[in-house]
């Protein structure tokens, strides 16, 4: 727009000028507004609110919500339910994570070669990961059913007594570990094969020339070079384990005798079954701080992974 | 590896795939038994019967659940991609004060597990009188730190000369986004769309909390409700429940079978989640 037209038509020019000047800084913030608005309303706001709720006594009906300091936290930490849940979650994590790492590493070694059959197998392995969690929990509930389930049918056919897979305090958590392994196998193997593919072939060939056997190469070359991948996966798995909900909710409902009452399930029933909002919020905050630390660790390794990848 | 070794490894891979795929086959097989045959000692697998599917559809409105799941996952995918594309564009290709801060605020949400926000988000929906509505299912997922982060990386890698040429030609910043940046980033956007759709499609805890009526259930919460009823009845009619499970798994598995390559990539780029 030339200044001559601006002079002859002052009105549009006066509105256009300031708008122009505003336009450049305004546009970026207009672009950011929807995302920032959504995240502010449903992520940042809620965290602060959660913190507030965890420090107050509040229920749906009462008008007043007095400040109670750390009472909710104290009550939570002192409760048998929380201790049990924490203990079961830690136990679950200690069993599930090494198992997932070991099986995935083993299968990744097998599936890294790209013959048609192994490519196809990798696809099959991935199917549980992308499927409905509730549906697979239902299917596995049948598999582990003590009367009519597949596992016990097989055991009995072999002349063994059937086991109470989902109805005993010792075995229920084991059953969840198994289904959890099965459900995530495709993802775990995918990450490991990506890590294995990044190990340079020449290193292996040089080691083989020097007389290193398969096991020696695995121990001294593959595993060390896979460390960043393994550590990343370890973080993912621990975070995962601490957030397991669907399998437990459908397969055992936290039972028997709360032996599978993992932390998020406890959070769910405290907040949305018993409506103890303050205590639920305290639990959410504790979970948050713990997972924040873990996610932070995990992100630092992603940064390193990208670095190794030589993107830049 | 020697040829024989490779052959053995192939067989091992096949065995693993068979074992992993077995639960799906079992679910299908049981869902096709006639209800009486299931109770028999040696159930006849042939001919397949569809009674259980009819009964499952009678027991629960799976058509409605499917509609709800499609609607919610579709709306979340479109909505979160829209907010993320705009934000990623601003952070990647516009110069302004506060850009890095804004990006940090968005990306930092990656560190926040969704369970922390369950209670407050529920209270928000209750305050807005939105409990048991589509809005309640969709709204909390409309912003995504991960998708924004991923797309910003993508947008930054596009050559800046395109923008400059378009600016010289008089295109507006938004026209550049829509005509140049988005079309050039189609694979990345498609991967994110798959990732978002899938995670919403299988989401369970939030719909479980925020919906109360049968009409608002998604496939996940709907199947869980059917299963609960079956358990509470004491007589779990497994063939009917399995038919329900197959109905719930079928759409996802079909899409997966058809587009496995893209899907695997979509999920693979979601590694961080």
Give a short synopsis of this structure.
Chain A has helices at 3-8, 10-54, 71-78, 80-111, 116-130, 133-143, 150-157, 171-197, 201-209, 214-225, 227-242, 246-251, 263-272, 277-309.
Structure description:
The complex is a heterodimer of chains A (312) and B (273). Chain A has helices spanning 3-8, 10-54, 71-78, 80-111, 116-130, 133-143, 150-157, 171-197, 201-209, 214-225, 227-242, 246-251, 263-272, 277-309. By secondary structure, chain A is mainly alpha-helical. Chain A has 2 domains: 3-54, no CATH class; 71-309, Orthogonal Bundle (MetI-like fold). In chain A, helix 4 (80-111) packs across helix 8 (171-197). Chain A is globular, with a radius of gyration of 27 Å. The two termini of chain A are 42 Å apart. Residues 1-23 and 306-312 of chain A have low confidence and may be disordered. Chain B has 273 residues and is mainly alpha-helical. Chain B has a single domain (52-272), classed as MetI-like (MetI-like fold, Orthogonal Bundle). Chain B has helices spanning 3-31, 35-39, 51-59, 62-93, 99-107, 118-127, 134-138, 145-156, 160-168, 173-184, 186-201, 205-210, 219-232, 238-258, 260-269. The longest helix of chain B is centred in the first third of the chain and has 32 residues, at 62-93. Chain B is globular, with a radius of gyration of 24 Å. The model of chain B has no long low-confidence stretch (mean pLDDT 87). At the A-B interface, helix 2, helix 4, helix 5, helix 6 and helix 8 of A face helix 1, helix 4, helix 5, helix 6 and helix 12 of B.
């Amino acid at each position: 727009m030339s200044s001559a037209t601006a002079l002859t038509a002052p009105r549009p020019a006066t509105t256009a000028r300031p708008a122009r000047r505003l336009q450049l800084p305004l546009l970026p913030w207009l672009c950011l507004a929807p995302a920032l608005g959504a995240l502010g309303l449903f992520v940042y706001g809620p965290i602060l609110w959660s913190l507030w709720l965890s420090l107050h006594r509040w229920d749906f009906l009462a008008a007043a919500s007095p400040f109670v300091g750390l009472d909710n936290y104290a009550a939570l930490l002192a409760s048998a339910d929380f201790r049990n849940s924490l203990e079961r979650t830690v136990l679950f994590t200690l069993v599930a994570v090494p198992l997932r790492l070991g099986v995935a590493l083993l299968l990744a070694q097998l599936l890294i070669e790209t013959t048609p059959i192994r490519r196809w197998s990798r696809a099959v392995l991935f199917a549980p990961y992308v499927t409905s969690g509730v549906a697979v929990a239902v299917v596995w509930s049948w598999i582990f059913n003590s009367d009519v389930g597949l596992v016990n049918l097989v055991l009995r056919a072999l002349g063994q007594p059937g086991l109470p897979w989902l109805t005993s305090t010792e075995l229920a958590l084991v059953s969840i570990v198994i289904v959890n392994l099965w459900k995530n196998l495709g993802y775990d193997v995918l990450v490991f094969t990506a890590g294995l593919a990044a190990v340079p072939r020449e290193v292996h060939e040089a080691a083989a020339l020097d007389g290193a056997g398969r096991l020696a190469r695995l121990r001294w070359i593959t595993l060390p070079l896979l460390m960043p991948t393994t550590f990343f996966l370890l973080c993912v798995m621990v975070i995962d384990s601490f957030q397991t909900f669907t399998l437990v909710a459908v397969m055992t409902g936290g039972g028997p005798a709360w032996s599978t009452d993992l932390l998020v399930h406890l959070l769910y029933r405290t907040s949305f079954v018993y409506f103890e909002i303050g205590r639920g919020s305290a639990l959410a905050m504790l979970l948050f701080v713990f997972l924040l630390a873990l996610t932070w660790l995990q992100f630092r390794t992603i940064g390193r992974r990208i670095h190794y990848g030589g993107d830049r | 590896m020697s040829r024989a070794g490779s052959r053995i490894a192939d067989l091992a891979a096949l065995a693993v795939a068979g074992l992993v795929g077995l639960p799906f086959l079992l679910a299908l097989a049981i869902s096709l038994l006639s209800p009486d045959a299931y109770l028999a000692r040696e159930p006849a697998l042939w001919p397949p019967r569809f009674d259980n599917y009819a009964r499952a559809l009678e027991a629960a409105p799976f058509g409605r659940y499917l509609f709800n799941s499609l609607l919610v996952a579709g709306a979340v995918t479109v909505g979160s991609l829209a907010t993320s594309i705009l934000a990623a564009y601003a952070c990647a290709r516009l110069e302004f004060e506060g850009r890095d801060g804004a990006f940090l605020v968005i990306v930092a949400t990656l560190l926040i597990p969704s369970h922390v926000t369950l209670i407050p988000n529920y209270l928000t929906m209750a305050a807005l009188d939105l409990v048991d509505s589509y809005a309640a299912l969709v709204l909390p997922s409309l912003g995504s730190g991960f998708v924004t982060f991923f797309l910003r990386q993508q947008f930054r890698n596009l050559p800046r000369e395109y923008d400059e040429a378009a600016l010289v030609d008089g295109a507006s910043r938004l026209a550049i986004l829509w005509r140049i940046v988005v079309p050039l980033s189609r694979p990345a956007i498609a991967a994110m769309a798959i990732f978002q759709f899938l995670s919403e499609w299988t989401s369970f805890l939030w719909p479980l909390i925020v919906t109360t009526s049968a009409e608002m259930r998604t496939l996940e919460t709907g199947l869980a409700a059917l299963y609960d009823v079956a358990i509470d009845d004491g007589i779990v009619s497994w063939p009917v429940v399995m038919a329900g499970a197959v109905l719930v798994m079928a759409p996802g598995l079909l899409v997966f079978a058809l587009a496995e390559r893209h899907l695997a990539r979509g999920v693979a780029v979601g590694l961080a989640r």
